[in-house]
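Project standup — Tuesday

K.O.: blocked on the structure for the chain from last sprint. Re-posting the sequence here as requested.
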Amino acid sequence: MKLLSKSFAIIAVLIVQGCALTEEKSQSMINQLVIAEPLPINYKSEVALARLTEVIQRAEVTDEQRAQLFYDRGVIYDSVGLRSLARLDFNRALHLKPDMVDAYNFLGIHYTQLQEFDEAYEAFDSALDLAPDHEYAHLNRGIALYYGERSLLAVDDLALFYQQKITDPYRLLWLYLIEQDVDSVDALTKLQQRAKNISDDIWAKSIVNLYSGEIDQAKFLQDITVNVRSNKEFSERLCEAYFYLGKLSLLKGNKRAAANFYKLALSTNVYEFVEHRYAKLELDLMRQEMLQEPEIN
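H.V.: unblocked you, prediction finished:
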């Protein structure tokens, strides 16, 4: 009995110590996190939506002018997260003006978010047929190809987009994300080489440094607040930071951390940012993957 009691006592101590260590680790992780107040909808956007709607309904304008009004309203709807209304207006604009390049580009983005990849490719192809030098159509088609599991094709679009401005850290990051899906070792080597073209004065260089292994996650999170001048800037920075932390966590096989980072990115309400758009898609893809995993008996 004494031996049994002693064993229980040892187990109890180990459990308490384990709980304490887990709690300490969790608290440490919480202390590292930096969270901004979610961005509210800009009242100027609300006023602009009201005015555009009134003009569309009442003004005597040409089809081309009305198409531009629908497009402008769609852009504002998109910026405040009203995606379905935005798509409706972009389609209305194209019905009136079938050669509106930017409307095709926006529709392609929305179809990508909905995982309707064939429609996305068609929209981006239409944009590029009309404007072969449209940089962001190449970016967005590349992203659509990446999420549509066609990374080999996506590399061409992202390489072209990156070459237009090799000092842009975001262009480098998206090119890396797609290249690593093809060859992770070669992609990391190229990332480290290309990182030399980016100024240390740009805050997003920290994201590149995190991916290249120059700094760790703790240092990265510590640097997020440096030279931030407003809550808007802070929210935008966090949206980017948490999305790329999510991608990095996923690359390392830590799905739970990735999901939490994506949710944090979404919580900023920075609807216009590519990182916000695809954080939601990343979560959707993770949920679908979980549903497809075979049950363990």
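K.O.: great, moving the ticket to review. Residues 2-32 form the longest helix (31 residues). The two ends are 38 Å apart (CA to CA).
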